[in-house]
Design brief:
The protein has 211 residues and is mainly β. It has one domain: Ribonuclease Z/Hydroxyacylglutathione hydrolase-like (Metallo-beta-lactamase, Chain A), CATH 3.60.15.10. It starts with a strand and ends in a 7-residue tail after the last strand.
Length: 211
């Protein structure tokens, strides 16, 4: 599995000929100097905002993504995806946020979307996170979420690897300091197999935003 990060909460996950886009921004997003374009088989949308619900930017050539943008159980390309509900405040407005869980190349993944408080997570959302090997977790950024609280939420689920996103430099520095991992280095992208997670406990994987 190859993980590429583009900034905000936008990721691309690839395994063989399968491409998953998570929270692609719309063409109108001002958060990206240039919105990255590629063709995806599946698009997961956690929160319907201009910066995270641009399905048109991951339709390219003969690839038109199957769009999942809310809670439920889905099966696409033999991949089982579970979505569970929560809510989040963005710009003083409440939004529905969906936490997604799925297994890719033997790695159980939980993508938390845009959360600002674990008390808003449904029991199902907490179960998805609790069963994960790898947790994608926001640190702050546009969210009213303190990095120390973000770290506490992430580590409460006892995962092998944490992938942070939605942060500024100061927030990420604090997040790393909470975990005693100030020396972790950025990677352009991550290529992982299940065995690479063995022996890790709450390791913070840093990905440099591409594009």
């Amino acid at each position: 599995m190859v993980i590429t990060y583009f900034g905000k909460s936008y990721f691309k996950l690839t395994l063989g000929d399968l491409t998953i886009a998570i929270n692609p921004p719309s063409k109108e997003s001002k958060a990206f100097a240039k919105v990255p374009r590629f063709g995806a088989d599946i698009a997961l949308i956690t929160t319907r905002t201009i910066d995270s619900a641009g399905v048109d930017t991951v339709a390219l050539g003969d690839k038109e993504p199957f769009v999942i943008d809310g809670p439920g159980n889905y099966e696409v390309r033999e991949l089982l995806i579970n979505g569970a509900s929560s809510t989040v405040m963005i710009d003083k407005k409440e939004h529905i946020n969906t936490v997604y869980g799925f297994e890719l190349d033997g790695i159980k993944i939980a993508f938390m979307g845009l959360i600002d408080d674990d008390k808003k997570l449904s029991a199902e959302a907490k179960e998805i996170a609790g069963n994960a090997d790898m947790l994608f977790m926001p640190v702050g950024g546009a969210l009213d979420l303190d990095p120390a609280k973000a770290y506490k939420i992430a580590t409460s689920f006892d995962v092998n690897v944490i992938v942070p996103y939605e942060y500024d430099a100061a927030g990420l520095k604090q997040f790393l300091k909470e975990g005693g991992q100030d020396k972790n280095e950025f990677q352009d992208k991550a290529t992982l197999k299940r065995k690479d997670l063995d022996g890790k406990e709450g390791y913070i994987l840093l990905l440099e935003a591409q594009g």
